[in-house]
Input
Amino acid sequence: KAGVTQTPRYLIKTRGQQVTLSCSPISGHRSVSWYQQTPGQGLQFLFEYFSETQRNKGNFPGRFSGRQFSNSRSEMNVSTLELGDSALYLCASSPTSPSTDTQYFGPGTRLTVL
Amino acid sequence: AQSVSQHNHHVILSEAASLELGCNYSYGGTVNLFWYVQYPGQHLQLLLKYFSGDPLVKGIKGFEAEFIKSKFSFNLRKPSVQWSDTAEYFCAVNVPGGFKTIFGAGTRLFVKA
Output
């Protein structure tokens, strides 16, 4: 079974631009969670989707948004990029819920904002 | 709000030494607890998890963790570390039905051969 895939793997953007990151979960997994990973901060929860519905979100500004498609693939968007948005963005999938299932993580998208 | 504290950001051990990584969480109700590991160049992966039952949980590669409810702790242990245990370890918690996992800041472990 293929693992969680994320595209692109690396991105360089400038302040003020917007970016869209994509995540394809493991086949059959319907829950997708997104995290921001920075040195010293660990993983910060962004949001979780299941069956195209956002079930929870973290404490991030409205510039961060996401969505999930009917095939469970998910995208996250960051508008009006700031230098502090530079981070590794991780996607994780699980069969139905991160509360009870093991989360399987992708390799991440490394975003650099100049 | 839930939070997770990992007391040691960096740990350096020699091979065969014993390991204990501290993890405390803040939440008064029922929680599910996890330890994830990220080996150099690899994805985050689950080491072990606790939902209920025996508070001593065994995971992969000889790791175990003990849930002490009165101390809000879920410390990770291994009796004898190997060079291949060099990695970053993350403690995580979520509330059943909450769909939101809170991670600690991580502990970087370096094992000297």
